[in-house]
Design goal:
The structure holds 3 protein chains of 3 kinds. By secondary structure, chain A is mainly alpha-helical. Chain A is built from 18 helices and no strands. In chain A, helix 4 packs across helix 5, helix 5 packs parallel to helix 7 and helix 12 runs parallel beside helix 16. In chain C, strands 1-2-3-4-5 form a 5-stranded antiparallel beta sheet. A two-stranded parallel ribbon of chain C has the order 6-7. Classes of the chains: A mainly alpha, B mainly alpha, C alpha+beta.
């Protein structure tokens, strides 16, 4: 190992240093180098607009925290496919089947997104930033396993170039790049990103709508119409489709790869807290907001309204992308609010808006994405007023 | 044929002083009518006609025009021109005018038109004013056609109504990009256009 | 330059006068052409619904008018009485609540089908179209949407022929003669477990728009039912 390291260091000095023949490609080489070994120089200065923590350490911890939903997602993707096709449903074969679907998406995400990162790093002459390691993994986890790979490639290109590099690169972006990539796919290729047939990994061909239809729990809950002969209670209706609360929380249901299991996300949340890189305020805020809004809807609900109005609050927390978004997306240090009070406001509003969109506009069941992106835009404003209020209080005190 | 100055008046707004890309005016219609090439083209022609004629009229009136009612007279002339164009489209190009719907009428509010009248036609002779109107209209059209062509190509797989995506690609699973049909698609393309222009022809500093 | 009030007022008056003369001239000269265009557009949509022409075919003005001679225009009231002397094109928006236009397609003096306008709400917008029934008033002859603002790629698929063609030959009445309409189901019609005569395939990801279509069928058919009831009893 030491031997390899020495070769790399020597090549770097001989070929890529300023004045040497391959000077222009220095940062491309540097990136490859630091991918294999811890870089000889860690990022310093403010790569994050407001966070001076060593980016590499930060990002490694987030990757660690992402492992539970990732591993569970791989297993569940295989498990759902086996359920649908009647294949062997033991742990190993489910995991292998899941890998067949999830690995290509992760590979595409890293390869395409990484290429864009490298292109911008080289032209702008700055080291390739480790931030993409997280974005490149977050993105596949919020996708349906059946998304055609070329669409994933275009999605992550959009996320990296338009949502991040245009604003000046890692730390300068207003919006979360992984979510922007997902939003792009969602609006560009709705047939591959919504409906009942995309969540179970059987075929990537979106034109094949026949066969197994894996209705999502959100879709089922929405289906409760007034006057329908089925039970008007969303809980029993969900249960009659096999969606019990335990199952939804554990995540043995069709859905986006990493989003189905609230439990796995919760484990990830604990990892983030213990390692000290995470901040509980945004996440807890999301939960508070969502529960509060759901209770308001419960009070408002009349018989003529559809099932989501009547759904108990704790169901909202385990459905769709809520848990994943609250733990991994709302806590993104770059795009969320920076002040502590700001994080509370930011989180609570995400929860409120998520339940609001989910319930009132059933056309967008995947409301967590929209809620977070929407609040991303307001995060600087929230911080501005929080800081202003603080300063005002302080000046009053000293007046 | 054209003097050096006239040429500058005509060609400046095409790239280096493009009304949409550099001054970011007239965005509204650039978003609204660019889902397909055909209506965008008709829109471009309409804007060029309105700009040339109203520039000429205002330039002819400029010596006798009382400055206190200047804006109202300009509005009056532009509005009349726009209504005329709208009436002609309704009579002769009905299908396209249906697609353009209110946006022909909204040329009135297109800042480029009023902006050029105020900035140029009020102070110049009729001929250069027409050239200025033509140049700015063309500059507007370049951007509009770029956005429209890409939106129709990516969003509907067509160009001017003719399918251009090979069947083989569609069989492989290619689908059109729905975002391009929505207004944000136009915003993104417009942003990319401005980005490309600023990188290729950097605006002179200190201007 | 003079800047006194008299000058300004007379200047403004002249500008206004010139502009208004110009505009009224254009308006009066072009009015007949425009009215003709609107009329033709409506006729085109009716004929598409009735299956006389196809949506992507191009015709000249004369050809369209020629083809429309096969169509007889009627206006009926809510009880199904034919209102003599009233033409559909003279109806105002408000009249449409109580007076219903009907378009019959005739061949050799017998009625081959009926078309009438239907209106409903989709996810984002008002859907407008024409529904055509066969002479038996129970079978769908054709369907066309000419105005909507649904999501491109999802709800907007309703105007595509793959969707509208599915409606052809579907029955809006069951065997007992009850009005049931045609329901756009979620997913495939064959999977819905309902009689295939009354259901069509849904559009993936556009449930709300599809529900809107189902509803506008029911509403439109109910409104015109008194008239069709009379047709079935032999007196039209």
């Amino acid at each position: 190992m030491k031997f390899l390291l020495n070769i790399l260091e020597k090549t770097k000095k001989d070929l890529f240093a300023p004045g040497k023949p391959l000077e222009k490609a220095f940062y491309a080489f540097d990136a490859a180098d630091s991918f294999f070994f811890s870089p000889s120089h860690v990022t310093h200065g403010t790569v994050h607009v407001r966070d001076s923590i060593d980016t590499k350490r930060y990002m490694s911890m987030v990757i660690m925290a992402l492992l539970p939903p990732l591993l569970f997602g791989i297993y569940n993707t295989g498990y759902q496919a086996m359920l649908a096709t009647g294949g062997p449903a033991d742990l190993v074969s489910c995991f292998i089947e899941g890998l067949k679907w999830v690995l290509p998406l992760i590979f595409i995400s890293y390869a395409v997104g990484g290429t864009w990162e490298a292109i911008f790093a080289v032209t702008r002459k700055h080291p390739i930033n480790e931030g993409f390691l997280v974005t490149g993994l977050l993105f596949p986890l919020v996708l349906p396993p059946t998304l055609p790979l070329w669409q994933a490639a275009i999605g992550i290109s959009f996320g990296v170039v338009i949502a991040k590099e245009v604003f000046g690169g890692t730390g300068m972006n207003i919006l979360n790049p992984a979510l922007m990539a997902r939003a792009f796919c969602f609006f560009s290729y709705p047939a591959s990103m919504s409906g009942d047939s995309v969540w179970v990994a059987i075929t990537r061909d979106t034109k094949v709508l026949d066969g197994y239809s894996g209705a999502t729990a959100l879709g089922v809950a929405l289906g409760v119409k007034s006057g329908a002969s089925v039970a008007a209670e969303p809980v029993s209706l969900l249960a009659s489709h096999g969606f019990t609360f335990e199952k939804l929380a554990m995540g043995f249901v069709p859905g986006s790869i990493g989003e189905t299991s609230a439990v796995a996300c919760f484990i990830g949340f604990i990892v983030l807290l213990i390692s000290g890189v995470g901040n509980y305020r945004s996440t807890v805020g999301c939960v508070v907001g969502a529960v509060g809004m759901a209770l308001v809807f419960n009070l408002m609900a009349t018989d003529s309204m559809h099932g989501l109005f009547k759904m108990p609050p704790h169901y909202h927390l385990v459905l769709g992308g809520f848990a994943f978004g609250a733990v991994y997306m709302a806590t993104d240090p770059v795009s969320s609010a920076a002040t502590n009070l700001g994080k509370w406001i930011y989180g609570i509003l995400i929860g409120v808006i998520c339940v609001l969109i989910r319930t009132v506009n059933p056309a967008y069941p995947e409301s967590m994405m929209l809620a977070i992106l929407f609040m991303n835009e307001f995060a600087p404003l929230i911080d501005y007023y929080v800081v202003k209020a603080k300063n005002q209080r302080r000046s009053l005190r000293h007046a | 044929m054209l003097s050096k100055n006239d040429k500058k008046v005509l060609t400046d707004p095409l790239i280096s002083n493009n009304p949409i890309a550099m001054q970011v005016l007239g965005i509204c219609s650039a978003l609204a009518v660019t889902t397909q090439v055909k209506p965008a083209f008709v829109m471009c022609v309409s804007v060029i006609v309105v700009m040339c004629v109203s520039s000429m009229v205002i330039s002819l009136l400029r010596t006798g025009l009382p400055s206190r009612i200047r804006i109202i007279v300009e509005l009056c002339v532009v509005a009349s021109m726009v209504i005329l164009v709208d009436q002609f489209l309704k009579a002769f190009l009905f299908d396209l005018s249906k697609q353009l719907s209110v946006f022909v009428g909204l040329i009135i509010t297109n800042c480029i038109v009023m902006g050029r009248l105020e900035a140029f036609a009020l102070m110049n002779k009729p001929f250069p004013s027409i050239l200025d109107g033509l140049g700015n209209g063309l500059g507007y059209s370049i951007v509009l056609m770029f956005v429209a062509a890409l939106r129709e190509l990516l969003g509907a797989g067509k160009l001017a109504g003719i399918p251009v995506i090979p069947q083989a690609l569609i069989d492989l699973g290619y689908v059109n990009n729905g975002l391009m049909v929505l207004a944000p698609g136009a915003f993104i393309l417009l942003g990319l256009y401005i980005w490309a222009q600023n990188s290729l022809f950097p605006p002179k500093a200190g201007k | 330059m003079r800047n006194d009030n008299f000058y300004i007022f007379s200047y403004a008056a002249v500008v206004c006068l010139v502009c208004s003369i110009l505009l009224s001239l254009a308006a009066t000269q072009l009015q007949p052409l425009q009215a003709e265009n609107v009329k033709l557009d409506i006729r085109k949509n009716i004929m598409i619904a009735l299956g006389i022409i196809k949506a992507d075919e191009k015709f000249t003005r004369e050809e369209l008018n020629q083809k429309f001679t096969a169509v007889k225009e009627l206006v009926v009231d809510l009880e199904g009485n034919i209102l003599e002397g009233v033409k559909p094109e003279n109806l105002t928006e408000k009249d449409l609540d109580t007076k219903l236009p009907i378009f019959q397609v005739l061949a050799d003096g017998t009625v081959q089908g009926y078309a009438f306008p239907i209106v409903g709400r989709g996810l984002w917008s008002t859907l407008k179209g024409y529904l055509a029934l066969e002479a038996d008033t129970a079978t769908v002859k054709g369907l066309t949407f000419y105005q909507h603002g649904e999501t491109p790629g999802l709800g907007a698929e309703i105007e595509q022929s793959w969707f509208t063609n599915n409606f052809k030959a579907k029955k809006v009445r069951d065997n007992l003669g009850n009005l049931v309409g045609v329901t756009v189901v979620k997913g495939k019609a064959t999977d819905s477990g309902r009689p295939l005569d009354h259901v069509v395939d849904g559009i993936s990801g556009a449930t709300i728009t599809a529900d809107g279509v189902t509803k506008m069928f029911k509403v439109g058919l109910t409104k015109y039912d008194p008239y069709f009831e009379r047709v079935r009893q032999g007196g039209r």
